[in-house]
Structures are given as C-alpha cells and as structure tokens.
Amino acid sequence: MQKTLGTLFLLGIAAYSAACLALFLLQRSLIYFPPAQALVRAPQVSTMTVPGAVVTISERPRPGTKALIYLGGNAEDVSMSLPQLDDAFPDHALYLLHYRGYTGSTGKPSEQALVADALRLFDRVAAAHAEVVLVGRSLGSSIALQVASRRPVHKLVLVTPFDSLAGLAARQFPFFPVRWLLRDRYEAAPHAPRVRAPTLVLAAGQDEIVPARSTARLVARFAPGVARHEVIEGSGHNTISDSAAYAAALRWAR
C-alpha cells in the first residue's frame, strides 16, 4: 500500500509538472486571440515596417493637429471600433493598430513587441499631429499606459484596465505558479506614476474578467490629480462599448 501511494504521488507530481510545462509553452495562445478578419472597412489602410514584422493600421485621415491612436483588447478586431471613434472624435485623425499576428499584420505578438510597435506608431503619428490622444482597451490599456509613461500623450483613456495581467492569470489558474511561468506580464501599475497626461479610466460596473479592486489599485498609482475613474454601470468587460454612457465618456478626450 505504501509503495502504491508513493507511486501515485510521483505520478501526480509528474502530471502537475507536465501541466505547468504546457501552460508555460502555450501561454501566448491563451493570451492572444487574433480575429479571423477585419469586419469594418477603414477609409484608409497603411502599413508600418517594424523589426520582424509588418503591421497594419486602419486609418480615418483628418488634417490638423488632433489625432487618436487606438489599442484594442486581446481578441479584438479593432476595425469594429472605427464607427464609434469616428462619431466621438470627428475632428481627429484616427489610427487603429492591428497587433502582430492580427488581421493584416505579420509576426507574432508579445508584450515587448506590441509595446515597441505602439511607441513606433506614436512617433509616426506625433510627427504629423501635435496633440495625440491614446485610447487603450483591456490588454491595450496596459500597452497604452506604457506608451504614455514614455511619450508626451495629450490625453489618455484606459478602458477596463487592470493593474497586472500576472495577477489576473493567478486568479484564473490558482493552482499553478503563474507568476513564475508568465513571460508577458503586463504589469501596468508601475508605469502609472510616470504618466503626466490627463487620464480617464473607464471601468465596467459588472466586469466579469477584471475585478474592481484591480482597476482601483491601478488608479491609486497615478500621481494626484492625473486620473479620474468612472464606472459604466450595467456593462460587462466586453459590452462596455455598447453603452451610451461609454460613448458620452469618450468625448472627454476631444
């Protein structure tokens, strides 16, 4: 009996180790979910050559000083946000980044690569427009926050943001050492104190993915007076943009 229990224990350890290894190797397929195609035709589409890839940008051109860059969620077809942004920001040129490996873009996504691509896009847009608004949603909120901590963003909007992807993953996989295994950690909170742009944080009142305390911890890291926190009641993580209150809140960044 003792030998049998020992064997079962060793088999359990082996199975757990194999599961940890699989989680480590497959983690990016659990983070990034590229959509099959862009469902909304943009007025203009451009490309940007970056190290190891060519990424696509859906654009709505406008002359003048004002521009907006949109960074979407981990499973988002960013072209779907074009009509709403077109309505909320009629005077802004719009630039919606399709991440590496997403519709129209080559390469493979990773935190380091996506942040680098967003910085490169900001520099390109800022060369033509003096006032650049940055909007990041869900995963894109962490990318936007990292850009805003390094570049002179005019205004920053974070939609359903979190303080740490590693923290969210640990909540989803409580029996695994996720904080040790995760390569793309998206630790947003440490970047918040360096942001100087006026910032609007929009949370979903019934967010089933990002706990309210995660967003609250992020907001608390901004310097006093920089960030304002609004909750869109009656909305979930993926439905917040369906709310009329969300559309109205976006206009703050005009």
Automatic annotation (TrEMBL):
Q: Does the keyword Ribosomal protein apply?
A: no
Q: Which Gene3D superfamilies match?
A: alpha/beta hydrolase
Indicate the segments forming the AB hydrolase-1 domain, all copies: 69-185
Question: In Gene Ontology terms, what is one molecular function of this protein?
Answer: hydrolase activity
Q: Which UniProt keywords apply?
A: Hydrolase
User: Which InterPro entries does the entry link to?
Assistant: AB_hydrolase_1, AB_hydrolase_fold
Give the protein's recorded name: Alpha/beta hydrolase
Q: Which species expresses this protein natively? A: Massilia jejuensis
